[in-house]
Amino acid sequence: MQHTLSILLQNEAGALVRVAGLFAARGHNIDTLTVAPTADPAVSHLLLTVRGDNAVLAQILQQTRKLVDVLQVQHATHA
Amino acid sequence: MPLLKPTPAADAEQAIARHPLAGTAMSGADVVVQVLADEGVEVLFGYSGGAILPVYDAVFRHNAEHLKADGSEPMPLVVPANEQGAGFMASGYARASGKVGVAIVTSGPGATNMVTPVRDSAADSIPLVVICGQVSTQAIGSDAFQEAPVSNIMSSCAKHVFLVTAADKLEATLRTAFTIARSGRPGPVVVDIPKDVQNATVVFDGQEELPLPGYRARLRSIEQATLSDAECAAFFQALADAKRPLIYAGGGVVGSGSASLLREFVAAFGLPVTTTLMGIGGFDTTHPLSLHMLGMHGTAYANYAVEDCDFLFALGARFDDRVACSPPQFAPRAKYIAHIDIDPAEINKVKQADWQHVGPLDRALQRLIQYGKAHGHQPVLADWHAHVAALKRNHSMNYDRDSALIQPYAVLEEINRHTQGRAIFSTGVGQHQMWAAQYLDFVEPRHWLTSGSMGTMGFGLPAAVGAQFARRDALVIDIDGDASIRMNLGELETVTTYGLPVKIVVMNNVGDGMVRQWQKLFFKGRFASSDKSLHRKDFVRAAEADGFAWARRLENREELASTIAEFLAFDGPSFLEVMIDPDAGVYPMVGPGASYSQMITGEFIPSRAVAKTGEAVASDAF
Description:
A: alpha+beta, 2 helices, B: alpha/beta, Rossmann fold, 6-stranded parallel sheet, Thiamin_PyroP_enz_cen_dom (chain B), amino-acid biosynthesis (chain B), magnesium (chain B), AHAS_TPP (chain B), transferase (chain B)
């Protein structure tokens, strides 16, 4: 199952690397990734899609929430 | 800490006490040292180099200007042989003290040598702050001398990394690094500081921290989580329905300072306790309800109790593969699993919990004790206690006591007779580590320092050095192996340089014993690169060369007791190499990916099942 995650991220040095690195280190392939600015210049909006069952999704959501730069993670959609 | 917390009695107009140096202009390097001093840092571990020189100079000046009444430095900087040593010293210090360990290294190789201790600390949830020098901001990305992409490298293995690109953020960043390292699930935080930032002049604030809205909001909700009456009632209802409840306690019990509350919980409700490797010391191993360690090399009686329990209460533990070797078959009769952890990602990661709580363990235990007592919960566990006592009696640890060769277990039993659960022990990784975990007693937490999750050979000696700085008066003993100690043998010199009375035991089985054990089991005894009988190292002479006045080799079992007594009694650093039976194995053993019912107990520990014969096959399990 493909899942879209919506992540709000603080614009710090290396913050994007830490998100991408977490997914890679835990064996997830990021299928698509877009990064866009938000109204707050200190915050970026990431949209990324990954595949996996519900347990896999729950675990990667929890792990993403442990990243210090991450403000918010939401499971946007699944197809 | 000179930062005074405002009290109701304090001047109402001055809500927060100002730092005496607030508003003072100083260099970035001086800011670093001032924040360290404010955080209560009492020892630093590190190796200098070009990109960190301004900070080293600031440490030197700080120490010279703030000598203590006894003439000692307030923040001595302990120099290892290699930066990895500094990292493990900081880790040993943190593990033994419960405080944040601090290491300071230079850019490039200094920082990359620190990668292993950083990953090791993250995996064992140990709070560190690692400060790395970095090339100047304008040189970053130019392949400059001693440049490495530390932020990228450390991002994969630290709890968090900061690359300080603006001098005016340095103070808040470093202070925040301490907050992150010690809060929630503790871990290592790396602060990468370009040399120009160290040299820049900034105005000191005295209390500034970074806002980190996401992290702080999540932390607050976890730290404020409390158990409702309904949750407590559900817990005690399930406990009342259970006949064989068991506590499985992990490193979180030690890390959160909950050992005394665990003891209180056990006193109130009578649950027996088994701990993980990291949880050793979280519960007094000499307590009648202690089952010692569970898992791949856990005691047979602990593993049988896990097989038999119908209620499992996991505290600050994460069902890792050395415990839940085969998750579906782990605690197969447990009808109810309750799990408390500070990290939400550990709940339901490996094993589905029926009852869960994410929050500080000390408060959760306190609340459960209070609720259980108030509602008169008193589980009737006489049969279970008798069963557990029988397991301990019938499947106790044992070995070949008649062998002419020195048995490693006998060495540990003899040391244990002297230390009585009161000494601090560090270890390397491998057979000697497991034997030490099995045969030594620990009455209190923070006395057992071992590289649990990462399993880093070479951890023992530098960790012992760090622990001795944390506990100057304690007896600190490094139980090491010949292969493990080789990895950081250079730190022998650090022991004598700083006059530390560390005791080092090398159990020499002439090779990588644990690797050989697996090669015997899974590779038909082909000892690929694990036999070191052709190595010509003379460990005793190596220790003597590094200034050990007491360095001996023990080869006869008749001299075991007298040699160990002399070794431990020596006033100062001492080094004992013991030539042990090279074929001694670690038993019990639950094979990788196997269930506890398939546990091999070896020749000397009675098993309650007839082990299947036939050769084990190599598998992908590790």
